[in-house]
């Protein structure tokens, strides 16, 4: 009888302990899994869709080349930082007109190649921007000949160096990377204009635009070679950007955009007009303000 009573008391004690344990979990706010879910929900998003300052690096497109006057920069028409009301740049869309004038900076240089990007990035770093825009690579493909184009390995190394320059000083600054435009499509659209083809002869992207009306097999092969290199550059931009948690590639949106004659400068029929710059700003704004991935 004593043994049976001992067993009963032991069983009751076990039940009581279980009940108290469950009550303790409820009183403490739930299971560890629930606590982890709350912690994740409270964590701020990795990507800020409303950065408070912007620096732009890159080449002639970001400088607004030929958007206003022939063979001249027009930074006020830049898709990234310009103040022209017809463009509504990324900076204006994010910061407002006054904010864009005070807290956006354009370090792009007409004619710049990817090898120039680390130096531009060092200038941008000094401003400590919350967002850096990158549009470069067109001039690496636009060389005197197709054989003179920047090798893909060098292009990758230069872009990686530019990202290291940024990250060593500003680990939390966000980066928006534009794809290189489809140069062959620009040739196809621009070659319909007689004046544009005359301007091309001054030396604008000769690897693609030289002898614009030549449709021989050799000329076609040359243009296809340049086009393949642009695709390879865009793959590098995507791959390097993907390794950085605060970098967004445009997914090929600029490369895929079908620039028409209204979006091309009526001075050289190759660089974006103000309308084209506005389209680039729209693409960038859509990518930058998308929710956290």
TrEMBL record:
Any GO molecular function: hydrolase activity
Matches recorded under SUPFAM superfamilies: SGNH hydrolase
Signal peptide stretch: 1-27
Name this protein carries in UniProt: SGNH/GDSL hydrolase family protein
Keyword Signal attached: yes
Species of the source: Streptomyces achromogenes
Origin: domain of life: Bacteria
Lineage: Bacteria, Bacillati, Actinomycetota, Actinomycetes, Kitasatosporales
UniProt xrefs under InterPro entries: GDSL, PLB1, SGNH_hydro_sf
Pfam family of the protein (one): Lipase_GDSL
Keywords per UniProt: Hydrolase, Signal
Residue spans crossing the bilayer: none
């Amino acid at each position: 009888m004593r043994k049976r009573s001992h067993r009963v008391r032991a069983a009751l004690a076990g039940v009581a302990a279980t009940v108290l344990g469950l009550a303790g979990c409820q009183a403490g706010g739930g299971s560890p899994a629930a606590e982890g879910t709350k912690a994740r929900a409270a964590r701020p998003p990795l990507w800020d869709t409303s950065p408070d300052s912007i620096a732009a690096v890159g080449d002639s497109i970001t400088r607004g080349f030929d958007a206003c006057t022939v063979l001249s920069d027009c930074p006020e028409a830049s898709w990234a930082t310009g103040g022209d009301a017809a463009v509504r740049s990324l900076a204006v869309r994010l910061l407002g007109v006054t904010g864009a004038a005070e807290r956006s900076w354009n370090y792009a240089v007409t004619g710049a190649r990817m090898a120039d990007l680390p130096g531009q990035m060092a200038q941008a770093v000094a401003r400590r921007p919350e967002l850096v825009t990158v549009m470069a690579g067109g001039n690496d493909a636009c060389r005197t000949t197709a054989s003179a184009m920047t090798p893909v390995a060098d292009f990758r190394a230069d872009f990686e160096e530019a990202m290291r320059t940024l990250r060593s000083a500003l680990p939390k600054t966000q980066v928006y990377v534009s794809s290189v435009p489809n140069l062959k499509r620009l040739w196809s659209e621009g070659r319909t204009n007689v004046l544009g083809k005359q301007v091309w002869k001054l030396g604008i992207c000769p690897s693609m635009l030289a002898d614009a009306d030549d449709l021989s097999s050799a000329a076609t092969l040359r243009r296809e070679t340049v086009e393949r290199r642009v695709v390879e550059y865009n793959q590098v931009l995507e791959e390097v950007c993907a390794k950085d948690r605060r970098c967004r590639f445009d997914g090929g949106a600029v490369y895929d955009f079908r620039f028409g004659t209204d979006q091309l400068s009526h001075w050289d029929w190759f660089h974006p007009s103000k309308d084209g710059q506005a389209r680039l700003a729209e693409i960038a704004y859509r990518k930058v303000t998308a929710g956290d991935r």
